[in-house]
């Protein structure tokens, strides 16, 4: 059975989001039906726009242009200059996409990049980003950020915190929840019957037996041993500098990393344009392109839609569709 269309929230209008939506439609057309939720007037001039009243109308509309579920914004798009006065509508677009997905009328939500300061200034947005907002809206207290491509899947155990705070934030119970959520997602979403998870150490050389740090000995290794004793195919702690070459990657389905850059540097090096942000632990599918608003090139026609197309494709595949 063909899944319902994907909901695509508009993100920050002053960024490259509107251009990405049109470029994605030009590549995918009705092979992967999605609905842009936002102001039709914010899409690039001359783009083929098809206004719809219901997301169920997307498959037909997508044969003729970009299907848009209209959301009236309080002003025009100003490429390169965020408009805090439009922040409420940006959040509303995300919320509408979530509601459609939870109701089963959309198969997934794909979110275009937001400008966090504009949302904080204009809407009192108190969340560090999409991920935390979606977790709050879904009523879950722990979600996991996975960056995925055809070449690598990585999960940072800690995300947007200063590097100096990582050792204090690295707790066995939080790390265990991250590993378990990742394991469950590999089973349920990716259909991997026996997921293999590799866990990185925090310190150089995974601590060298305590000579370069004790987090591996005191936190990471005991947890891995306990999970492995349960039958989970989890290994480590591995030295992060030897985890990401081709031969090593063949030995696992996902890598758990201890901090943001330890996870994102390898995937962005290996597959910069095709990396997709996937939120695990939500009761619905959410993906996003793995980049920001790119204000410096907004409105110039230079935006690369590859990551957005891949994010839509991943959402569609996880929902049971094929492209």
Automatic annotation (TrEMBL):
A Gene Ontology molecular function term of the record: magnesium ion binding
Function text: Catalyzes the NAD(P)-dependent oxidation of 4-(phosphooxy)-L-threonine (HTP) into 2-amino-3-oxo-4-(phosphooxy)butyric acid which spontaneously decarboxylates to form 3-amino-2-oxopropyl phosphate (AHAP).
UniProt GO cellular component terms: cytoplasm
Residues that bind a divalent metal cation: 160, 205, 260
Gene Ontology biological-process annotations: pyridoxal phosphate biosynthetic process; pyridoxine biosynthetic process
Extra facts: The active site is located at the dimer interface.
UniProt-recorded name of the protein: 4-hydroxythreonine-4-phosphate dehydrogenase
Species assigned in the record: Roseivivax sediminis
Catalytic function, reaction form: 4-(phosphooxy)-L-threonine + NAD(+) = 3-amino-2-oxopropyl phosphate + CO2 + NADH
Keywords attached to this entry: Cobalt, Cytoplasm, Magnesium, Metal-binding, NAD, NADP, Oxidoreductase, Pyridoxine biosynthesis, Zinc
EC number: 1.1.1.262
Cofactor(s), by name: Zn(2+); Mg(2+); Co(2+)
Family of the protein in this entry: Belongs to the PdxA family.
Gene3D superfamilies, sorted: Isopropylmalate Dehydrogenase
Organism placement in taxonomy: Bacteria, Pseudomonadati, Pseudomonadota, Alphaproteobacteria, Rhodobacterales
Principal location listed in the UniProt entry: cytoplasm
Cofactor binding note from Swiss-Prot or TrEMBL: Binds 1 divalent metal cation per subunit. Can use ions such as Zn(2+), Mg(2+) or Co(2+).
Subunit note: Homodimer.
UniProt keyword Repressor present: no
Pathway membership: Cofactor biosynthesis; pyridoxine 5'-phosphate biosynthesis; pyridoxine 5'-phosphate from D-erythrose 4-phosphate: step 4/5
Transmembrane parts of this sequence: none
Compartment list: Cytoplasm
């Amino acid at each position: 059975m063909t899944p319902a269309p994907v909901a695509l929230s508009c993100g920050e209008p002053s960024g490259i989001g509107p251009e990405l939506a049109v470029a994605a439609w030009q590549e995918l057309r009705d092979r992967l039906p999605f609905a842009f939720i936002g102001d039709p007037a914010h899409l690039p001039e001359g783009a083929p726009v098809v206004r719809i009243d219901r997301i169920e109308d997307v498959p037909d509309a997508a044969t003729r242009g970009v299907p848009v579920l209209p959301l009236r914004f309080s002003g025009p798009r100003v490429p390169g200059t965020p408009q805090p006065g439009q922040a409420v509508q940006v959040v509303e677009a995300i919320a509408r996409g979530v509601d459609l997905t939870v109701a089963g009328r959309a198969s997934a939500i794909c979110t275009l990049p937001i400008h966090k300061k504009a949302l904080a200034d204009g809407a009192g947005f108190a969340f560090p980003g999409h991920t935390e907002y979606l977790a709050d809206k879904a009523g879950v207290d722990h979600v996991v950020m996975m960056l995925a491509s055809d070449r690598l899947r990585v999960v940072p155990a800690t995300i947007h915190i200063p590097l100096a705070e990582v050792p204090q934030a690295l707790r066995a119970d939080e790390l265990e929840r991250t590993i378990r959520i990742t394991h469950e997602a590999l089973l349920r979403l990716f259909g991997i019957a026996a997921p293999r998870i590799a866990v990185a150490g925090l310190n150089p050389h995974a601590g060298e037996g305590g000579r370069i740090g004790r987090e591996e000995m005191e936190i990471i290794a005991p947890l891995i041993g306990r999970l492995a004793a349960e039958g989970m195919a989890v290994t480590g702690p591995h030295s992060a500098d030897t985890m990401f070459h081709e031969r090593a990657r063949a030995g696992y389905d996902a890598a758990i990393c201890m901090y943001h850059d330890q996870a994102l540097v390898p995937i962005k090096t290996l597959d910069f344009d095709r990396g997709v942000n996937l939120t695990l632990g939500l009761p619905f599918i959410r993906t996003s392109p793995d980049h920001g608003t790119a204000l410096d090139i907004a409105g110039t026609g230079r935006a690369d839609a590859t990551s957005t197309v891949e994010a839509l494709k991943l959402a569609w595949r996880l929902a049971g569709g094929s492209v």
